[in-house]
Design a protein that fits this description.
Elements (H helix, E strand, L loop, with lengths): L32 H15 L4 E2 H8 L3 H13 L3 E4 L4 E4 L1 H13 L1 H17 L2 E7 L4 E8 L14 E3 L3 H10 L4 H8 L10 H14 L2 E4 L6 E10 L2 E11 H7 L1 H21 L1
Antiparallel strand pairs: 1-3, 2-3, 4-5, 4-9, 5-6, 7-8, 8-9
Helix pairs in contact: 1-3, 2-3, 5-10, 6-8
Length: about 280
């Protein structure tokens, strides 16, 4: 998993999720095209540095412009997007922030994990992150603590990344209870600075299962080390605790020391979530 401003992002995918991406394994989700298109528009606007016009949005998401316009007007009426009548462009509106704050306020994981991340970041001078495993497709950053000094590797709450990237991807493969055929298909789409072969990566997954945590030492992004431990609910990984920093710095601290500390913290959070 990469948490740097210039990270390799996943390809935009405006299409509705398939049954394989259902939040509960074995569940069948009936596709609702209008909802999927609205979500794709919101994701596109969240990634854009500037507001976008109807035709730019429609072209990027392969939508009929008139359909795109109807959805944008509906989203604007719900205060989820804003419209500038001078430029004729759309951007995200404050309603998105209100929804996100409501989710985080009531999310037991983000509330429980924040003091854990603060302690990790302060003790080791690293960036510490809490992620939620939304599906085998994506992970989402829901909590973060940055060091006061040294190099700060940036990400933002709400950022979405491909699920199988870096150390977090190894943990998801090891502890997520997903079928290997689906994992392998997703793995082949991940981009790395120093890509492992599938056989190497599968050995890494087995090592992750044995240790209880995963280490990516510069393989996904050169010069950056990422360590992840899984938070388990109902026998599978539901969230993760992550620390990341310059590889040389984390080697000095010790991958094993950081990994074991993350495992202990992740297990404590898992127990607290079980009781929540």
């Amino acid at each position: 998993m990469l948490y740097i401003d210039n990270m390799k992002s996943s390809k935009s995918d405006p299409s509705p999720r398939t049954e394989a991406d259902a939040p509960e394994r074995g569940a069948v989700i009936r596709q609702v095209p209008a909802v999927a298109r609205a979500a794709a528009i919101l994701r596109l606007l969240s990634r854009s540095d500037t507001p976008l016009g109807v035709h730019a949005i429609a072209r990027s998401l392969r939508l009929v412009p008139s359909t795109c316009l109807h959805i944008l007007r509906a989203l604007a009426a719900e205060e989820l997007v804003s419209f500038d009548p001078d430029t004729k462009r759309y951007g995200l509106a404050g309603g998105i922030v209100a929804l996100a704050r409501g989710m985080l306020r009531h999310d037991p994981f983000s509330n429980l994990v924040q003091p854990v991340l603060d302690r990790l970041s302060s003790r080791h001078n690293v960036t510490a992150i809490g992620v939620e495993v939304a599906s085998l497709e994506h992970i989402v950053v829901v909590a973060i603590s940055r060091p006061g000094h040294a190099l700060r590797l940036q990400t933002e709450i709400g950022s979405r990344y491909p699920a199988l990237v870096s150390a977090s991807g190894r943990c998801i493969a090891a502890f997520g209870a997903y079928p290997w055929t689906e994992i392998e298909k997703r793995f082949r789409a991940v981009r790395w600075d120093n890509p492992p072969s599938l056989a190497q990566w599968r050995d890494d997954v087995e090592e992750t299962r044995r240790l209880g945590y995963a280490v990516d030492d510069g393989r996904y992004i050169a010069g950056v080390t990422i360590i992840t431990a899984p938070v388990m609910r109902k026998g599978r990984m539901s969230q993760g605790l992550v620390v990341l920093g310059v590889s040389e710095q984390l080697r000095r601290i010790g991958h094993g020391l950081l990994g074991e500390e993350l495992v202990a913290d992740a297990q404590a959070v898992s127990r607290q979530l079980k009781d929540a």
